[in-house]
Amino acid sequence: MNLVKRTWADVDLDRLERNWRQIRVVVPRQAKILGVVKADAYGHGAVPVAQAMTEIGLDYLAVSSFDEALQLRHGAIMLPILILGYTPPEYAQKLAELQITQTVPSALYAQTLDECLAGTGRTLNVHVKFDTGMSRLGFSTDDPTIASLTKLSHLRVSGAFTHFAVADSLDPSDVAFTRQQYEKFSEAVKKLEALGAPLELRHCCNSGATVLYPEYAMDMVRPGILLYGVHPSADTEPRLKLEPIMTLRTSISQIREIKAGTSVSYGRTFTAPHDMRVAVLGIGYADGLSRALSGKMRFSLHGKSIPQIGRICMDLCMADVTDVPEASLGDEVTVFGDAPALSAAELAALTDTIPYEAFCVIGKRVPHAYYRGGERVDLLRYIV
Ligand SMILES: *Cc1c(COP(=O)(O)O)cnc(C)c1O
């Protein structure tokens, strides 16, 4: 499987390992590390990333849906998997067979899962989700119906978790809110244990909390973005040194010379102020380069910055290469990655979003190449 070098993502799994080592240093020794690989491992490719996480020594994986969990099992990923979101209860038996752990956010859902398992001879591992401040999925911590959970004979309540809203911020009011969330969660966990739940994994730390609040690690932490080598906020940056594992690249499809006064692309939003050399790049919004970036971003070519000009189209966009005389057909252009290219965070900031979204919107048609020990490793091992 040779990579077609139009637009592609290079993913360096050695960097993933080094990022994990950095995280391991800040996380207390007793705590396990769960790698969050939802949304196709934040656009990095779920199976190859999960495969590498298995080899590296991560303890657990999390996805958002049954489909995503199934994709991992079909890809021969054997680590325990937690589904963070809703799975229709009719899949309860499949979950149990595939040893997938399901999140339970309400007593009604738990009861329905339990009914679906009656007569199957299966027990399903579940983690109870508490809402302590997101007003999202989960039991309120004062919800008396949690008492019903330990009475369901086909569910094993082996874990409990919550999710922080502002754990990546050291603003004093955010620190106070996170502490409050942690305390609410700790109390809820105690109640659940008093009811007889055999809790083995209590966890609440996302990337921000993993770095800023190692004292909240409990039995396991749940970093996502950190493993991909990106900080969740500026406040975590001084605490550990990460390397972005993805570099998004494209290539020059054609070079054009245009005269002063010539307009570029749809809507004619850009007009050449002088004679220019323009590179037509094989990337557009269908590849994940948001149209909202039109005229705002730059690429990196031969170590130099080239401004993007005119509207970004579905499959193509244009860049000014007047100052890069060596630019030629087929040359590699970096969209985001190491400096001097923009980072994913810098690119995201140009349209008021976060690097998480910049990764997630990478188009389905963009192939990924994986590197381990400096070698391409996706040539057979990861094809499923
Ligand atoms: C996505 C997610 C995470 C990981 O968040 P990061 O900020 O990427 O570390 C952890 N826990 C839950 C419940 C999530 O949904």
Provide structural commentary.
The mean pLDDT is 96. The strands form 3 sheets. Strands 1, 11, 14, 15, 16, 17, 18, 19 and 20 form a 9-stranded mixed β-sheet that branches. The protein is elongated. Helix 6 links the parallel strand 5 (100-104) and strand 6. 45% of the residues are buried. Helix 1 (13-26) crosses helix 3 (46-56). The chain has 2 domains: 31-228, Alanine racemase (TIM Barrel, Alpha-Beta Barrel); 246-376, Beta Barrel (Lyase, Ornithine Decarboxylase, Chain A, domain 1). It has 384 residues and is α/β, with parallel strands linked by helices. It has helices spanning 13-26, 38-43, 46-56, 66-74, 92-97, 107-117, 172-194, 207-212, 344-349, 355-360; strands spanning 7-12, 32-36, 60-63, 81-83, 100-104, 124-131, 139-140, 155-162, 201-205, 220-221, 246-258, 263-264, 270-271, 276-281, 298-301, 304-309, 317-320, 332-336, 368-372, 375-376. The chain binds pyridoxal-5'-phosphate. Pyridoxal-5'-phosphate binds next to loops.
Defining key terms:
2 domains, binds pyridoxal-5'-phosphate, elongated, eight-stranded parallel β-barrel, nine-stranded mixed β-sheet, TIM Barrel, single chain, alpha/beta, Lyase, Ornithine Decarboxylase, Chain A, domain 1, 10 helices, 384 residues
Summary of the model, kept short:
The protein has ten helices and 20 strands. The chain has helices at 13-26, 38-43, 46-56, 66-74, 92-97, 107-117, 172-194, 207-212, 344-349, 355-360; strands spanning 7-12, 32-36, 60-63, 81-83, 100-104, 124-131, 139-140, 155-162, 201-205, 220-221, 246-258, 263-264, 270-271, 276-281, 298-301, 304-309, 317-320, 332-336, 368-372, 375-376.
